[in-house]
Amino acid sequence: MSWEDDRDTLIAQTMEFVQSVVNRRQGRAETAARPALLPAVEALHLNAAPAETSVFAPVRMAEFPATAAIPAPAPRPVVRGEMASEIRARIAGFRANQERFNREREEYFSATLARLKATLNDRSSLRSEK
């Protein structure tokens, strides 16, 4: 079986499944084995060679017994003071991190600049000695 035959079979089974769901919702009995397909899919089936055997079993919806709906738990009430204090704490933590990053960046810049100046002074003193 080629991939086109597999695709066509899958499309047909999907359409059968959709039709069975629609029929159940409308309270009708199940329809024939193959429902009416879209025109493009119908053309595919007319042009395709008939498959020797079907690899796929027909799709059937599972029957589940009706159960009582379980109510969702009530949402936890949001205390405004609690939320505001958490937001303030997060903002304070964020600011502390930003200040630390700025301080470390300034220290790194100062140390790098000092090394650069020291290197330039060493080179200029070597040149003046020659």
Structure, briefly:
The protein has helices spanning 3-26, 39-47, 80-129. It has 130 residues and is mostly helical.
Please give a structural write-up.
By secondary structure, the protein is an all-alpha fold. Among the domains are: 45 residues, no CATH class; 42 residues. The chain is built from three helices and no strands. The longest helix has 50 residues. The chain is elongated and about 100 Å long. The protein starts with a helix and ends with a helix. About 4% of the residues have low confidence.
Specify the helix fraction band. 55-70%
Report the sheet-strand fraction: under 5%
Major sheet details: none
Compute the separation of the termini in Å: 88 Å
Let me know the number of strands.
Answer: 0
Kindly list the characteristics that best describe this protein.
130 residues
Topology:
Layout: H1 3-26, H2 39-47, H3 80-129
